[in-house]
Design brief:
The chain contains 14 helices and nine strands. It is of the alpha/beta class. It has one domain: TIM Barrel. The chain is globular, with a radius of gyration of 20 Å.
Length: 334
């Protein structure tokens, strides 16, 4: 039913990136991992993949490459999908990257995803609370040598976008297994990133007009740019009309993320959404051991999530005058 499935590994990361709020879940992730209860979430992900058989699965964290069972988890998912994207920060010791490179994996289905931030030491150290740039760069170089696809997602909000890609090519020397995609900054919750989104809105709208030309100007001539949500959300950003959002009309994506667990009441809850750009504070709740997987598909058809589209995070990129005052409800049948 769903073309894309995104799941969150319940295992702590070592990064404390200024642009990300996920590391605040680390204490809970650590508790659940030590007790073994984290596997209940991971088993649910396996069941959802088997049920909906998405074309592509996206695995975030925490830090997936630090999860001890990542190899078996990826092999299990590979039975139900054509491609698996793994999001990694590359912020770990060199042995972690070497361990991943030696794993027995369905390499033809694996894509390592990463978002470089400025790709120069001074800004990197500030935004990662001091993680050694040299270690990070070494891990990226090691990844390039692994015979799987690597996708580096550069942020089009940045004024020095062209220079970032030039530095990346000079320092990493990417080969034919590397591709570049383009993304926009998103509100990470609690307003993280919103001011920058609004301040760079004009630049983003200009660059969205021809992303291929933007990348060509930056000097990238390796693999073609893959389509991303930046392409899919262009009609909404240019018009301010959220009814043009493809995520409303098609079961394009199911996103599952950790919400609760490891507490005295024993409740284990996931939050699920059907779009990357729902309001940061919104999400349906799925109770492990109580709710049926069928609920995930039925709620897309029922459509209550569409009532929240006026809070779409991509509207930060629109002129205020373009934002819709009222959204007409639309019944979806599949």
């Amino acid at each position: 039913m769903f073309k894309y499935l995104r799941v969150q590994i319940v295992h702590p990361c070592q990064a404390k990136c200024a642009w990300c709020s996920t590391h605040f879940k680390n204490p809970r992730f650590s508790t659940l991992h030590k007790s073994g209860e984290a596997e209940e979430y991971h088993d649910l992900y396996r069941e959802v993949a088997a049920k909906y058989k998405p074309e592509e699965i996206f695995v975030s964290g925490g830090e997936p490459l630090l999860y001890p069972g990542i190899d078996q988890f990826l092999r299990d998912l590979a039975e139900h999908t054509e491609k698996i994207h793994i999001f990694t920060s590359y912020q770990f010791n060199e042995k972690t990257m070497e361990r991943f490179a030696a794993m027995d994996l369905p390499r033809e289905k694996i894509v390592l995803n990463h978002t470089p931030i400025y790709f120069e030491p001074e800004n990197w150290h500030k935004l990662t609370h001091g993680f050694p740039f040299e270690t990070y760069l070494h891990n990226v170089r090691l990844a390039v040598k692994v015979p799987i696809l690597k996708r580096f997602k550069f942020i089009i909000n940045h004024s020095g976008f062209v220079e970032e890609i030039a530095r990346f090519q000079k320092l990493v020397d990417p080969d034919e297994t590397c591709e570049i995609s383009l993304k926009m900054m998103n509100d990470q919750g609690d307003g993280i990133g919103v001011e920058t989104m609004q301040n760079t809105a004009v630049r983003v709208r200009e660059r969205l007009g021809d992303l291929d030309a933007v990348l060509e100007k930056a000097g990238w001539s390796n693999r073609p740019r893959p389509q991303t949500s930046a392409d899919l959300m262009r009609p909404v950003i240019e018009s301010g009309d959220v009814t043009k959002c493809i995520y409303r009309d098609e079961p394009l994506e199911l996103r599952l993320s950790f919400y609760r667990g490891g507490e005295e009441d024993g409740k284990k809850i996931l939050k699920y959404r059907y779009c990357p750009y729902f309001p940061a504070d919104f999400g349906h709740k799925f109770h492990l051991g109580k709710d049926s997987i069928e609920k995930l598909g039925k709620n897309f058809v029922k459509g209550p999530f569409r009532d929240h589209c006026q809070g779409c995070r991509m509207l930060h990129y629109c002129d205020a005058a373009d934002r819709p005052k009222k959204i007409e409800k639309k019944k979806v049948s599949l």
